[in-house]
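Tokenise the fold.
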Amino acid sequence: MAAVLQGSDYPVVKSAKGLDVPWGSQYVLEGRILARQREIEGPFGEFPGQYSGCRNYPVIEIDRVSHCKDPLYEALYLGMPWTELDYMCAVNTSAPLHVQLQNEIPKIVAVNAIYTLGFIIIVSTKRRYGGFAKAVGLRVMSTAHGLGYAKLVIVVDEDV
């Protein structure tokens, strides 16, 4: 995928076991997925604040962990709001939702998604006609982001 994105071959190196590994990897986990072996995993606390059920998952044995010098480990703190994930969800929802709405309704000024066990989406818009706010709110609720996650849509004037 990296090669396709950059439009040229992506360099690889050989791991201790002789596997091709992307050059510059932060961490490399080498191991085996054990055939026909599963163990119950869970329950886990999920991002909306509820627990998932337990499920049978494949067993993986890790033989070797290697990393570059001073590796970066990216992670987000998950749990009941407010956590890092809540802020990141909000940013990653506000931007595409703003672009989508702006393309369809040019009077949209700003979009802010606040994540608290579902999105509260605030849309600032220039008023066009009576009932315009209702039309904007219904359009927000019918987007990919709004349909599954929006719990409340607030439409305000452009100066708010």
